[in-house]
Predict the structure.
Amino acid sequence: MCGFIEGCVDSHISALAACRGGADRLELCANLAIGGTTPSPALFRQVRRDCGVPINVLIRPRFGDFLYSDAEVEEMEEMILHFRNAGADGVVLGALTPEGALDEAVMARLMDAAGGGLAITLHRAFDMTLDPMESLEAAVRLGCRTILTSGQAPDAPAGTEVLKALYAQATGRITIMAGCGVRRETIREIYDRTGISTFHTSGRNGPVDSRMVYRKQSVSMGLPSLSEYELWRTSEEEFRACADIVHRLCSPAAKASG
């Protein structure tokens, strides 16, 4: 079956660009500059209204590790219920134990909130686990449909050895979706080295300059390393180039959809 591409977006303008560029599905987030957090209900409503592809929603209450307090788990459960009722197609989640394993008890709670009607993607918390092969088996036991991973490397091109092993071990029981560093220049290399034909990308090719005329360069509202006057958005051109490559990939053992 031919390849599948998911657009990772954190704004309405990026969602539209990814959809126009050929996205098969969206992962809707907020704050991708810090790895992504749960988007607002208003943003979901706008994207659901204006984009005609399935939407999976990231469930992540904060930046940082994936070891969550009881209150944070409760928050995630409530957000899953909200997006389930609002018409999401799936949710993207993950939780770890202090020892670096998947927290199957917390994951089961979150998946219970999804109610069986939402597709579950295990996000890149997977890449922070101690044993990726055991974590894959835990994800299968839990009933996750997809694992989003860079192969426990800084990006997917650097993680192809582990990605190949994960793809082989999955044996069609769960979709392995390569993410991080997925660009038009790297897709074919990842596919050739691993067999994976399901990809996740933000489709960005550089910052967009702010429309602000007056600029207070001495003040930062967030991470000092990030400019307040550079906006990161999906490029329709870049996403279309990625989608064209992915949709030409065919592998008999590949999943067409997560």
User: Anything to note?
Assistant: Residues 251-258 have pLDDT under 50 and may be disordered. The CA atoms of residues 7 and 201 lie 5 Å apart. DSSP finds eight helices and ten strands in the chain.
